[in-house]
Each structure stands twice: as structure tokens, then as C-alpha cells.
Design brief:
With about 280 residues, the chain is α+β, with helices and mostly antiparallel strands. Helix content is about 35%, strand content about 30%. Among the domains are: about 55 residues; about 70 residues, no CATH class. The longest helix has 25 residues. The N terminus is likely disordered.
């Protein structure tokens, strides 16, 4: 059943669950909503154009001596309605996918379940993969821990013109991805600083940070020795005495709350081990 605003009973039920979860976990005011990716009007236009081109080419070839070659564009023509059906089916399935960003956290409807995440409690693993070529695009995956301790993966995909409609992916990943990282860093950095100021040690996956230095199970360096910290091809490396060294081949995608780590590491490197107040 569909209401006057176009929402189904199922969508209304999810909205109620989302509002209750946000209130129960004190997430504050809603700041943004990102639905599942939807088909663009341009996609249908491209499909129609393709159908006209392939159909016309098949007709021309069938009337010439090269009639046997008409099978090729005819086969491509048959793929057009299949592509339209797949994209419309994906759009329909994605109507239940929704990401709501709040002051202190987020809710995400993934696979029919509402997950609640608080920025000050969660762990974030980011994996961004760029696919080059004519049809190049970037795939985004953010793995977070919700308030119940379960993992939830927020996925998005963007090509050069915008989002591509795919099942289970959120629209606008270039907006919500950085927003989530920024808010997690803002919420967790003060506690991380307090830990360092009290002489504690912070673990970021395979890496550890103290007021004295940065390291892993295999190697380490003092802050006064580290000249630069950079990411090369998705891996964290440090420059010591003019040479780049990998820290146990630590990939950004394996470092929880990478931006918290990077903010701390860069400050400690520049200050020679003095944690920010």
C-alpha cells in the first residue's frame, strides 16, 4: 500500500524505527539523508539511443551483402531491454536503503535492518578502490561498528558523471563518506589525546602510537626521527633519514579510524612527541 506522499507501508515502518533508534541512542538532530542509488533520466535516454543505433545498423546490414553481420548489432539490441530491466529492478530494491546522518551518529538501513552508529563509539575502516579506463569509476566501502557491536558496511559507487544505480549502494558517497570520517575524528580525537597525555598507548590495527614514537610489531621510529608520513598506493609509509619505510605494509583499509591516527601522527611528528592539549 502507498500513502499520499508515495511512501509504502514498509517505508513508513522503517522511518518509525529510524526515528526511535536515533532518539534512543541520543543521536541529536538529523543533518542529512542519503537514499539508495536511483536510475538517472539520462540512463534511459542512453538506452533508447543505443536501441536506435543498434536497430538501424542491424537493418542496414540485413539489406546488404553483409547481412550475416547484422547478427552482431541485433544481439546488442536485445541487451538494451535487459539492461533497462536490471537498472529499474535495482532502483526498486534500493528504495528501502537509507542513510541518515545526525549530530552524534547515523542510522543505516542495510539488508532490511536498521543499524545505529555513534561517532564517539564506532570503529571505521575505509576502502576506496579506483577503477580506471573508459568506464572508470570509484567504489567506496566504509565498515563501521554499530551500537550493538555488529559490523555494517556502507557502500557507494561514483563514476565521472555521478552515482551508478547498484543494489545496496547509497547515493552521494563523495558527500557522506568524508562527513562520517570528519565527525568520527571530531568525536574521538579528544579521548585519544587524553590517552597519550596520560602516557598511554593507542592501537590502530597493526600500528601503535605513543608520545615517544610510531611503530608496528616489526619496526618503529621516534617522532624526532620521522620526517614525513604519507600514503602511497593505499599504504602508510614514513620517511626516516631520507628513506621511505613501510610499517609492516599497513594498508589504509586495515587501519581503524585512520583519520584519527593521521591527525595524531602528524601533530606528534611536527611537535616532536608533544601531544596536543
Amino acid at each position: 500500500m502507498t500513502g499520499q506522499d508515495g511512501r509504502t507501508d514498509g517505508q513508513e515502518q522503517f522511518l518509525t524505527l529510524i526515528d526511535e533508534a536515533a532518539l534512543r541512542n541520543r543521536l541529536g538532530e538529523r543533518r542529512a539523508v542519503h537514499p539508495g542509488t536511483q536510475s538517472r533520466a539520462s540512463s534511459l535516454g542512453c538506452a533508447v539511443t543505443g536501441a536506435v543505433v543498434f536497430g538501424g545498423l542491424a537493418l542496414v546490414l540485413s539489406l546488404t551483402a553483409a547481412a550475416v553481420l547484422a547478427v552482431i548489432p541485433l544481439g546488442l539490441l536485445l541487451l538494451v531491454p535487459l539492461g533497462i530491466w536490471i537498472e529499474r529492478s535495482t532502483t526498486k530494491q534500493n528504495r528501502g536503503v537509507r542513510l541518515d546522518l545526525y549530530d552524534h551518529g547515523l542510522t543505516a538501513v542495510v539488508k532490511g535492518r536498521v543499524h545505529t552508529v555513534r561517532y564517539d563509539q564506532t570503529s571505521v575502516l575505509q576502502n576506496t578502490v579506483r577503477h580506471t579506463g573508459v568506464g572508470g569509476y570509484t567504489a567506496y566501502a566504509y565498515t563501521l561498528t554499530d551500537v550493538a557491536g555488529a559490523k555494517v558496511v556502507l557502500r557507494g559507487r561514483a563514476d565521472r558523471t555521478g552515482e551508478v544505480a547498484e543494489k545496496g549502494k547509497f547515493a552521494n558517497p563523495r558527500e557522506w563518506g568524508p562527513a562520517v570520517q570528519q565527525e568520527v575524528t571530531r568525536a574521538q580525537l579528544p579521548r585519544a589525546v587524553a590517552t597519550l597525555n596520560s602516557g598511554g598507548r593507542l592501537e590502530f590495527g597493526r600500528l601503535w602510537v605513543t608520545r615517544d614514537g610510531l611503530g608496528s610489531a616489526r619496526e618503529s621510529a621516534q617522532w624526532h626521527e620521522i620526517q614525513e608520513i604519507k600514503v602511497f598506493s593505499g599504504f602508510v609509509k614514513i620517511r626516516v633519514a631520507g628513506r621511505w619505510r613501510a610499517l609492516t605494509s599497513a594498508a589504509v583499509s586495515t587501519i581503524p579510524n585512520f583519520f584519527v591516527f593521521l591527525a595524531l601522527a602528524e601533530h606528534l611528528r611536527q611537535s616532536g612527541g608533544r601531544a596536543p592539549v
